Amino acid sequence: MFEELSQYLGWTNCFPEGESFLVIAEGTDCGFILQHFIHTFLKRKLPVCLVSTSQTFSHYSQAGIKIGANLDKAREEKSIHLVDLMSKFLNHYTGQIECDWNAKNIYLSIKEELDSMEISANSILIVDDISVLSSLCLSIDDIGNLLHYLHALSKQRGFNILMSIPSLDCEQVQDTQSIAEHYADTVLCVKSLQTGYSKEVHGQIEVVKGGRSNCGVRQYKLSDKNLHLFARGTSMAVL
Questions:
Q1: Most buried by CB count within 10 Å: which residue of 2, 19, 40, 159?
Q2: 136: which residues sit within 8 A by CB, 6+ positions away?
Q3: What is the CATH number of the domain that holds 185?
Q4: Are 198 and 219 in contact (CB under 8 A)?
């Protein structure tokens, strides 16, 4: 999909196996990162389990069409599996269903879907927005337990895991982010430009491994089918 992003992540010669990724979005949308992971793993014929908390599968399907990915077909072929927590959350809050939301129940619903898949060492579990958990009346301890269970399962079975969270001025979301960072092998920080909107530069991204920047900060320009990365100050707008 986005070849320059794969290179930036170091996937050219070494594809991830049993790694934990966290995407932190500050003032911008990180959906293109999630789409990149989904499309890249499916293209390699590796199973994907998508846990949707903030977007519908239709949203991902429509976004996938722009980059040539047929997620509806992939779902029919059981290449991608869906745990639709968002619909369950909405049905619960509108009174259509009664459900006791806690870390154990959410974990079991995800594990049940994973158990139905042919999990390999290079498979991936994607949770699209873990900040939603803090709005479900889950305590920070419950959220911590859920993330612990999922990462423990990931290490036990050897699959990759990707979570994303927006950087918000909210204590519980910030606490959730801190817990997620503790478990992450690689953190992708995606930020909007402090100088505001630019036609040539849409934001910046930094990959952090082991608390250290992997290859420095890169700015990016995003189009429907391409992502161009470049060092700060080297875009066409300033050259």
A1: 159
A2: 89, 101
A3: 3.40.50.300
A4: no
Helix (H/G/I), strand (E/B), else coil: 70:
coil
- Residue-range definition of the domain harbouring residue 40: 18-197
Question: Residue 63 in contact with residue 194, Cβ under 8 Å?
Answer: no
Task: Give pLDDT, residue 125.
Answer: 97
- The bridge status of strand 80-84 relative to strand 48-52 is parallel
**Model's pTM, two decimal places?**
0.91
Highest mean pLDDT among 95-99, 147-151, 228-232: 147-151
> How far is residue 167's CA from residue 129's CA, in Å, rounded to a whole number?
11
Confirm if 197 and 161 have CB atoms less than 8 A apart: no
3-state secondary structure of 28: coil
CB 162 within 8 A of CB 201: no
Amino acid present at 135: S
Q: For residue 36, is it within any domain? A: yes
DSSP string, 157-174: HT-EEEEEEE--S-HHHH
Give pLDDT tens digits for 74-99: 999 999 999 998 887 776 666 666 66
Contacts of 230-233 spanning 24+ positions with Cβ under 8 A: 232/204
Task: List the beta bridge partners of residue 230.
Answer: 219
Alpha helices in 77-170 (DSSP H): 85-93, 103-115, 140-157
